[in-house]
Amino acid sequence: MDQAIAYVALLRGINVGGHKKVPMAELRARLEALGFTQVITILNSGNVIFRTTTEKERVLESTVTEQLASHFGFSIPVLVRQAEAINTIIQRDPFQDVEVTKDTRLYVTFLPETSTADLTLPWTSEDGSFRILEIQDNMVCSVLDLSVTKTPKGMEALEKLFGKQITTRNWNTLLRIADKLA
To answer: Which residues of the chain have pLDDT under 50?
Structure first.
């Protein structure tokens, strides 16, 4: 019998401002209906841990996306990563040298493909409020400083540089996901 592998599904744009409402109990039920096991949701923003014997992230992304669109009646972009990738970035801690204040936001952005962006790192926005520290495979680590600007333009910069099919998580959310993977 094949060994089940732990994965993390990252859903984009659900439960934001009352739009694209996806109750977590229904989300878990939809993934369990696909035969996934040990399904756990983290927060209300579309973070799901599950286990399956399927080994291709692209196949899982397509399967989950189709299932959710069929059930909820609207498209939900989904990126899937092996749990090992999440654990690896947590262990590496790309933010260890960042001075964190109440205005600091640490982000990891997940890309659908390995980045081909030609940036000199660290890259800093014109106003100095947003920095991209590193691009590793299909993940971008960035820092937003809200003390520089109260209008966070970081997500706009990320979409401009890497396209709209990305999804971003706060470092604290990834720490919560990693804690549930342990």
So the answer is: 1
